[in-house]
Amino acid sequence: MTDLHNKTFPTRAVHAGERTTPSNARPVTTSIVPSVSYTYESMDDLDAVFANTQPGFIYSRYTSPTVAAFESAVANLEEGEAALAFASGMAAIHAALLAAGLQAGTSVVSSFDVYGATYSLLTRFFASMGVSTRMVDGSDLAAVEAALKESRPAVLLVETISNPLLKVADIPALAGLAHGYGAQLLVDNTFATPYLFRPLVNGADYVIHSATKYLADHGDVLAGIVVTSVTNRARMFETNKLLGSNLGPFEAWLALRGLKTLPLRVRQQCNNAAHLAGWLADRPEIAHVNYPGLISHPQHALAERLFDGQGMGGVLSFEIKNAVRADVFRFMEALQLCLPATSLGDIYTLVLHAAPSSHRSLTAAERERVGIREVSCAFRPGLRTRWIYRLTWSRR
Ligand SMILES: Cc1ncc(COP(=O)(O)O)c(C=O)c1O
Predict the structure, then answer these.
(1) In DSSP terms, which residues pair with 378 in a beta bridge?
(2) What is the largest CA-CA distance in the chain?
(3) Ligand 1: which of 111, 213, 225, 350 to mutate, judged by most atoms within 8 Å of the beta carbon?
(4) Among 342, 351, 348, CA closest to 383
(5) What is the rounded distance in angstroms from the CA atom of residue 191 to the CA atom of residue 81?
(6) φ/ψ (deg, to 5) at 148
(7) What letter does residue 168 receive in the DSSP assignment?
């Protein structure tokens, strides 16, 4: 540390107080480290960190201590070797697809009922780069196998619990199929969370999260993360050093803080969703409820097997009987405390109308094929939902 005595006022204003924490005193909680760059006593050390022969930090587009702490925590919960955090869930999906080998001339097979932007990333963005996508019903193993056999894709992409139809993917079976046809299995585990299910332990190659949702879950962080092998992470890391869609330290700190209550929140939200799904299913105004916890759900038994009694997910979706778009809008406006919003990641109860929001980028014909109707709404119960039982609304 340079002696600042006898230095000018402007010099002291810049340097005073910096790098003064004793090296043997460790803060109990992870600190936010906003520093963009790092300095070492010896240039040889810096060179060794650049060469990856010595651990350390170089520049925050590469990684930083707070982000590394978040990555290490999620890798641990997902039981994976390593993780890389991104500025959003979409950046994470994009990075994983590239690392898994998508490039001009390759192809991908994907569940058709994936998040709307994921659907568009494949069918618009990657398509424009010469990657072809085959969309199938991920819950139909015979259809998936037929598509794999025909396309011989680099990647099979599914969501463990799909957004917003809440279909459950048989990850162990899909991993077997994907590997049998030379594809890597990428699983978006956002809706299941590692609390309910860990895809890597069940054969997946990459696990992706929109950490914006359950992992952080306070509605104040946009973040994404991919958990995979050390080798795959290194591939994503090298690409992202060039692309720079990395997570910032403030967001990483908030996400890491959110993670601490993940089991408590998910358990409560699963309970609330189960009660609400059962209640809605009995209402005469409701045409249909999608929730893996309902015995009527086509993958109910699979969900019981995969999620091992931990819960059936904290999101449900439903359709209002004989409604048109205007009725759905009136319903959403009539809600109290429950917020009509554009995300499903918060401690508040949120309701989202898929057609004009999360799946707006799909054409009406695409939505029809996927099974998302004009009147499909997704409910994401927060930590307090019992009041919803008193919910009523009138049609104008
Ligand atoms: C299942 C799923 N995957 C990915 C994303 C994209 O995540 P983000 O909004 O953090 O980019 C979302 C967003 O809603 C999602 O629901």
Answers:
(1) 317, 352
(2) 81
(3) 213
(4) 348
(5) 21
(6) -65, -40
(7) B
251 CB near ligand 1 (under 6 Å) = no
Inter-helix orientation angle 230-243/89-99, to 10°? 120
Q: Which residue has the tokens 């309970």?
A: 271
Distance spanning both ends of the chain, measured CA to CA: 72
- Three-state DSSP at 285 gives coil
Question: Tens digit of pLDDT for each residue in 118-166?
Answer: 999 999 999 999 999 999 999 999 999 999 999 999 999 999 999 999 9
pLDDT tens sequence across 88-122: 999 999 999 999 999 999 999 999 999 999 999 99
- How many helices (H) and strands (E) the chain has is answered by 15, 12
Q: How far apart are CA 146 and CA 362, in angstroms?
A: 24
- Contact residues for 106 (Cβ-Cβ < 8 A; gap 6+): 131, 153, 154, 155
Strands (E), the chain: 82-86, 107-111, 132-136, 155-159, 184-188, 206-210, 224-228, 286-290, 316-320, 339-340, 350-353, 376-380
Measured by CA distance, the residue closest to atom 14 of ligand 1 is 343
Q: Is the pTM of this model over 0.85?
A: yes
